[in-house]
Amino acid sequence: MNQKIKDLVEILKEKNIKPSYQRIKILEYLVLKKNHPTVDEIFKDLVKEMPTLSRATVYNTLDLFKRSELARVVTIEDNETRYDAEVSVHGHFKCENCGTIFDFPVDEKALYSDALKDFMITEKNVYFKGICPKCHNTNK
Amino acid sequence: MNQKIKDLVEILKEKNIKPSYQRIKILEYLVLKKNHPTVDEIFKDLVKEMPTLSRATVYNTLDLFKRSELARVVTIEDNETRYDAEVSVHGHFKCENCGTIFDFPVDEKALYSDALKDFMITEKNVYFKGICPKCHNTNK
DNA sequence: GTATCATTTTATAATCATTATAAATACCTA
DNA sequence: TAGGTATTTATAATGATTATAAAATGATAC
Description:
The structure is a homodimer. Chain A is α+β, with helices and mostly antiparallel strands. The first copy, chain A, has 2 domains: about 1-70, Winged helix-like DNA-binding domain superfamily/Winged helix DNA-binding domain (Arc Repressor Mutant, subunit A, Orthogonal Bundle); about 90-140, 2-Layer Sandwich (Dna Ligase, domain 1), CATH 3.30.1490. Helix content of chain A is about 40%, strand content about 25%. The first copy, chain A, is built from 5 helices and 5 strands. The first copy, chain A, has helices at about 1-15, 20-30, 40-50, 55-65, 135-140; strands spanning about 70-75, 80-85, 90-95, 100-105, 120-130. In chain A, the strands form 2 sheets. A 3-stranded mixed beta sheet of chain A has the order 4-3-5. A two-stranded antiparallel ribbon of chain A has the order 1-2. Chain A is globular. At the A-B interface, strand 1 and strand 5 of A face strand 1 and strand 5 of B. Strand 5 of chain A pairs antiparallel with strand 5 of chain B. The structure holds a DNA duplex.
């Protein structure tokens, strides 16, 4: 536990981010909960143990993490921004029934297109929607 | 021109959508302008020739088109929903400098992942961000 | 052709995620 | 400890989207 907190502090320091209590907790949340939480989910969970936490802090911190490449935005629905501490290229599948988001591997080479040979690519996103196996079986 | 309108009416009828003037014009806009417009862009352009047009109609109609698979949502930024009359699987590249959105081909087979073999996939989305050749050269 | 009913559109208000602002707090250095 | 900077907080403002109810349009039966 202490070790883990220490790791989080190190991660922040490497990115020249001052490790405030709020930042450590938000980073910890992202790293431990790998369920691509929305801003609101992060806020509502963390405010339980940090009653003075402000939504603005959550927004500011996530934006800071994004700019520092500690987290990436997962845009699947236009009305909820999610965050993911796993910044490598991978796909997201969202079940339209239960809302769960699953990761899946993406072959980056396969995504290459000649049409983009003169483009400077800074971000690659792949997401699918549909019904996950669990919901598919239940509904049948 | 008349022929084209007639085609649009046919497209709507095939989906069992009554071809009202507003629906024809919005579909025409999507089909002719292939620039993945936002709802606001569609509204602001069309209200010029249809002064009584309401934003609600644009929202309702686009939602109807989406459900009827006449258009697909292009979610790239979380604060602007775009629409595309091209419903086949293809990628979108958004230039972070000029905002232009480019289409590029995507090899659907290459996107296949064993991890999703038990999932029912209804929608596949690929989008990249970066700098387009034009902006890249200008800024250099 | 007119009355009736259903559909579509419109205008407006409500909602909700996000951003902006300014004050309060915490942190750092001299 | 004092003074200055960075961070957090509370609150208000913004802006896209959705909800609601009235008005307009269109279709059908008589």
